[in-house]
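Table S2 (continued). Query chain:
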Amino acid sequence: MGIFLLYPILKEVKIVVSPTDHRKIGRLVIFVIPIIILLGLAIPPAVAWIYGAKVVLQATAQPQHEDKSFVLLQYTIEKVPAPLLSDTLRKTIATGAASGPVKVFGKLAKQGNYHVLTELTDRKPDGGTYLSGRLQNAELDTDYTVDFGLARFHLLDPENEHAPDPWVAQVNIKSGYGIVTKINSNRLSD
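Corresponding output:
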């Protein structure tokens, strides 16, 4: 309603914009929008890297037959047994609402030297350490696979001939977003 009251006043004010001003504004928009998009993509990893809670996860390396200069890591928290699923997530899977990947949240707790998955739910936890991910095979009944978006690819040191197990990854987690900061074989050095 207020804009209609200002219309007679705005009608009298004439702002003259030349074609060169339109070009300058267009160029500014063309350069500013991609920068805003890039900043939006870079902020979550940066926040997790700087302010995230440090978590230590255990992983195994899948053997690579073609090229032995790298390994693909499989984190132990990504294989989820059925008893760790929350009741609401089980209902979602049972009703068939989970036709594709389902967004899930994995609650983590420290047991011994490593953090382990304590519960997998479809509702965002209020607090604590958790990772957000996607439940891949919701139609199965035994073990489920969750992709938490953690880095899997790791280059081996040229002096090492093989990839020993177990592997350990140090991950910083903030608001469900995890970023791998360190990957070592056998143990993490402090």
